[in-house]
Amino acid sequence: MALLERSQNEQGEVLFTLKHPGTLADIGKFTAANADMVKDATAKAHKAQKSWGALSFAARAVYINKLKIAILDRMDDVVAVICKETGKPEAEALAEIAAACDSMQYYAKHAEKTLKEKSSRVHLMFPFKKLITTYHPKGVVGVITPWNFPFSMGANPLAQALMAGNTVILKPSEVTPFSALILAELCVEAGLPEGVFQVVLGDGVTGAALIDSGVNKIHFTGSVKTGRIVGEACGKRLIPCTLELGGKDPAIVCADADLDRAVPGVINSAFFNAGQACASTERVYVMESIADDFIRRVVEEVDRLRQDDKGEIDVSCMIWDNQLRIVEHQVAEAIEQGATLLAGGKRKENAEGLFYQPTVLTDVHHNMAIMQDETFGPVLPIMRVADEEEALRLANQTSYGLSGSIWTGDTQHGLDLARRLHTGCAAVNDFGGLCYGAAEGSFGGRGDSGIGYVNGELGLTSFCQIQHIIVHRFGPKREQMWYPYDAKSNEGMKKFFNFFFRSWIGKFMT
Ligand code: NAD
What we know:
Elements: E1 4-8, E2 14-19, E3 26-31, H1 35-54, H2 57-73, H3 75-86, H4 90-115, E4 118-121, E5 129-137, E6 140-144, H5 152-163, E7 167-171, H6 178-189, E8 197-199, H7 204-211, E9 217-221, H8 224-237, E10 241-244, E11 249-253, H9 259-271, E12 281-287, H10 288-303, H11 321-336, E13 340-343, E14 359-362, E15 379-385, H12 388-395, E16 405-407, H13 411-419, E17 427-428, H14 434-437, E18 450-451, H15 456-461, E19 464-472, H16 487-502, H17 504-509
Parallel strand pairs: 6-7, 6-9, 7-8, 9-10, 11-12, 11-16, 12-15, 14-15, 16-17
Antiparallel strand pairs: 1-2, 2-3, 4-5, 5-19, 10-18, 13-14
Helix pairs in contact: 1-7, 2-4, 3-4, 3-6, 4-5, 9-10
The structure holds nicotinamide-adenine-dinucleotide (NAD).
C-alpha cells in the first residue's frame, strides 16, 4: 500500500490521496494544479509584486512580523498539521516552527541593512564618479520544496524573498502539501495582500509548470536527481535558480574527543528527524584508538532510543515509503557486502506505519552505497580509521559536500580540520546541520550538494537583481578616453598609467 496515490478523473484532473506515515490512516486528498492554473497564479503574483515591491522595508517587516505572530497564535494547529503529514514527534514539529519564526524575525529586522542602497567611491575614477549599488526584487520567486521539513523549508525562503520585495509561489512536495496550505492560511490571517504568497499543489509536473510559468527565479530544495532537471529547465529559460540539494555528511571523531558530548552529539545529528535531514550525519570516521569505546557507547545509547508508534517517540517514522525502501535496500546491500549490524537493521515489528529502527553498522567501506549515496534515513555507519589524515581523505571522498562535523577536545585543532572538509559548512563539537539555522551565515553545498545559497547576505541578495549605477560628479566635460583618439592623449594615458599603477598613491587609491 502506497502512502501517496495518484489518480486521474474523467475531466483529466490529477488527484492525490495521502496517508499518515505513522498510522497509515487516510489524512486527506488534493487536486494538482495544471499548467494553466500555475500560469494564472504567476500572473496574479506579478500584479501583486508591483505594490509589494514598492513598499518600504519597514512596511514589509510589519507584515512578516504579523505572520510570525499568526504562527505563534496558532502554534498547536501548525504542529498538528506537520505531525499529521510527517508523523514527526511534537518536538521536531516545534523545531520547524522555531526555524520559521526565527527566520521571519531575523530578516524582518536585518534585511534592510543588507539590501539598502549603497554608495561608494570608484577607485580609478575617484573623486570624479561615485558608484550606487541598488537591490531590486527579482519579481516572482517560485519556491519548490521537499517533504522532510514541510513547514520551515517553505517559510524560510518565503521570509527572505518577501523582505527583498518579491512575491512568492510555493510548490510543496506532493507528499506533504498541508503544511504549505496552513502557511498560506496564516498569511491571509496576517493580512498579507492578495497574490503576495500563493501555493500550487502537485508533483513534479506542477513543479515543471511553475518553472515554465514566467517566474523570475526558482528556489529549489530537494534531491540531486531533481535538482539537475530543475537546473536544466531554468537554464533553458535563462532564469536563475538556487539548488539546495542532498548530502552525505561525515562526522570525524578524534582521539581526544569528549565522548560524553561526541556520542549523544553524533547520535542526535544522525537520527534527528529520523535521519531525513539534508545535513544529517550519514558517516562516522572514528580514530582506532577510541573506536571500541565509542562504538560500544553509541550502541548502548541507540538501544535506549524510543520508537513507540503509540506513545513516546525519539526516532519517528519515516515520512515516505519510497525513501524507506531506499534505506532498506542500502542496509541490506551493505550487510551482504560485509558490514556488521550492531543495532536496528529492520522495520519496527508490529508497527503499522513506516517505522525503521535506528540502525548502527560497522565494518563498512567506501565501495558500499551506504558510504557514498545519500541514505536519508535513521542509519549510522561507523568506520574505524588509523588517523585524522585518513579520516579527512575518506570524508572528502564522495560527490556531495553539504556539511560535516569534527568532534575533538581541542577546538582550535577542530577548526583546522573543519576547514579541510570539502563542504559548504561544518561544525566543531556540534551538529553540522545547525549551520542552516544560523541566519548570519550563507548556507549552500559544494559538488552535488547544490549551487547558490540560502540565508545570510548571499541568500538574501540571491532574491535580488543587483544594479550598479555610476554617477559622474564633476571633472572635465570630455573624458580622456573619449573621441577623438590622438597621439597626445595616448601619451597622457601612458603617463597616467605609469603613475597610477606604480606609485604608492595609486595603490593607496585602489
Ligand atoms: P525531490 O527532488 O524528489 O522533490 C523535491 C521537490 O521537487 C518536490 O516538491 C517535487 O514535487 C518537485 N519536483 C519533482 N520533479 C520536478 C521537476 N521535474 N520540476 C520541478 N519540480 C519537481 O526531493 P524530496 O524527496 O522531496 O526531498 C528529499 C531531498 O531533499 C534529499 O535529497 C534532501 O537531502 C534534500 N534536501 C536538501 C536540503 C538543503 O537545504 N540542501 C534541505 C532539505 C532537503
